[in-house]
Amino acid sequence: MNEDIFGIDYSSNGELTSTGDLMLVSGLDNAKQAIHNRLLTDIIIYDYLEDYGCNLDELAGEPTNHNSLQLLDLIIKDSLNLEPRVREVLELECSFEGKAIIAEMSLLLVDKSVIDLTVTNEGGLINV
After folding, report:
1. Residues 6 or more apart in contact with residue 59 via CB below 8 angstroms
2. Does residue 125 register a pLDDT over 50?
3. Residue 38: its pLDDT value, please?
4. Cβ(34)–Cβ(54) under 8 Å?
5. Structure letter (DSSP) for residue 10
6. Is 65 helix (H, G, I), strand (E, B) or coil?
7. The domain spanning residue 82 has which CATH number?
8. Percentage of the chain surpassing pLDDT 70?
9. By residue range, what is the domain housing residue 7?
10. Are 100 and 93 in contact, with CB atoms under 8 Å apart?
11. Residue among 101, 60, 111, 106 at smallest CA distance from 80
């Protein structure tokens, strides 16, 4: 069922099947991957895709203070509000750890399922 809503795509972390083919992700796993990829893709990368991506790199290395955390929260929520799979951001907790940006979130998806997701950006390196 979720496959119909969230689709199927290749695994963006390069996982292979036992036969050497690229692994596929579907349903909620594909929704999580798509949201993760959106947040870790700089907006300028795919300038032909209007409103795709997020400018997390602009804040990498910023000190943790009220203003930088508010801006980070705003940048992430703006990006998530443009994500067609997300109905609502239920919770969002952002922090800086050195140059890394960490965003822990709980999201209500369009199929009314709730997912928890942690996205870490370490200056362009992707970790989940």
Report:
1. 68, 71, 72, 75, 96, 101
2. no
3. 92
4. no
5. E
6. coil
7. 3.10.450.40
8. 91
9. 2-127
10. no
11. 106
H helices of 1-128, where?
A: 2-6, 27-39, 66-81
Measured between alpha carbons, how far is 101 from 1 in angstroms, rounded to an integer?
A: 34
Residues 43-91: pLDDT tens digits?
A: 877 777 778 889 877 776 667 788 888 999 999 999 999 999 999 999 9
Name the domain count of the chain. Answer: 1
Directed axis angle between helix 66-81 and helix 27-39, to 10°?
130
SS3 90: strand
Contact 113, 28 (CB under 8 A): yes
* 79 close to 39: Cβ distance less than 8 angstroms: yes
